[in-house]
Automatic annotation (TrEMBL):
Gene: folD
EC code: 1.5.1.5, 3.5.4.9
Associated pathway: One-carbon metabolism; tetrahydrofolate interconversion
Protein keywords: Amino-acid biosynthesis, Histidine biosynthesis, Hydrolase, Methionine biosynthesis, Multifunctional enzyme, NADP, One-carbon metabolism, Oxidoreductase, Purine biosynthesis
Signal peptide positions (record): none
Lineage: Bacteria, Pseudomonadati, Pseudomonadota, Alphaproteobacteria, Sphingomonadales
Name the record gives this protein: Bifunctional protein FolD
């Protein structure tokens, strides 16, 4: 058996179209476009590429893009002052501070400074708490994109066994919270888990977000399971996921890398920006 490939690229393109329609309706009603501000500190090449694609996608969806590129030696005070300005700017509905930040900057303090109603990354502790307690929240883009793909494969997620590999604040933790909200039975495995395979073997759904190339092995996978590969690892010869490609011979459905989860992240970011704009206007 070979797994069905989940076409994240096509799904993301359809989502971007729906977002563009919603953005046009907002513009018509509010007399201004939804606006997304993206802040990049330093010149990390990968981050630079992401920020450029976010700006392009924002404009393509009919929204206003505000890009702030600051030098690597920017102080905490300068960065916080910029966040304060963006919080107060009525033309800005969404604020994204690209991570990772340079080491001398207190990342948590910066994240906590963003107005929770403009926190389109969903990283603010208030949004994390809202998600964990089932309140209306802005939800981190990558896990929400994974959930959208999973809902497409499994219209009924309730009761399914889900294993999330990785416990980061950006993907693993919010992914587990989302799957729990969908009434899955959720297990998070991580670097200190004693027997990762024993857990993964039982899963109907596996979400891999560890950042280790080819980590998930075919013999771990229950035949027919759905596998979501969040990994984008740069290796010699290109980009590879966290899932060994041979997993496709066992799984029922799988996201490719590239073209799976990756394109969903920006599409959901645009969606979160329109949601934030509508909530702020309403
Ligand atoms: N760095 C890697 N992924 C992300 C993300 O989703 N948001 C931000 N702000 N930075 C990132």
């Amino acid at each position: 058996m070979t797994a069905r490939l989940i076409d994240g690229k096509a799904f993301a393109a359809a989502l971007r179209d729906r977002v563009a329609t919603a953005a046009a309706a907002f513009t018509q009603a509010a007399g201004r476009q939804p606006g997304l501000a993206v802040v990049l500190v330093g010149e990390d090449p990968a981050s630079s590429v992401y920020v450029r694609s976010k700006g392009k996608a924002t404009l393509a969806a009919g929204m206003a893009s505000f890009e702030h590129r600051l030098p690597a030696d920017t102080t905490q005070e300068t960065l916080v002052a910029l966040v304060d300005r963006l919080n107060a700017d009525p033309a800005v509905d969404g604020i994204l501070v690209q991570l990772p930040l340079p080491r001398h900057i207190d990342e948590r303090a910066v994240i906590a400074r963003v107005d929770p109603d403009k926190d389109v990354d969903g990283f603010h502790p208030l949004n994390a708490g809202r998600l964990a307690t089932g309140l209306d929240a802005l939800v981190p883009c990558t896990p929400l994109g994974c959930l959208m793909l999973l809902r497409d494969v499994h219209p009924h997620l309730a009761g399914l066994e889900a294993v999330v590999i990785g416990r980061s604040n950006i993907v693993g933790k919010p992914m587990a919270a989302l799957l729990l909200q969908e009434s899955c039975t959720v297990t998070t495995v991580h670097s200190r888990t004693r027997d990762v395979m024993a857990h993964v073997r039982m899963a109907d759904i596996v979400v891999a977000a560890v950042g280790i190339p080819g980590f998930v092995q075919p013999e771990w996978i229950k035949p027919g399971a759905t596998v979501i590969d969040v990994g984008i690892n740069r290796v010699e010869g290109g980009l590879v996921g966290d899932v060994d490609p041979r997993v496709a011979e066992v799984a029922g459905a799988i996201t490719p890398v590239p073209g799976g989860v990756g394109p969903m992240t920006i599409a959901v970011l645009l969606r979160n920006t329109v949601v934030a704009a509508s909530r702020r206007a309403g």
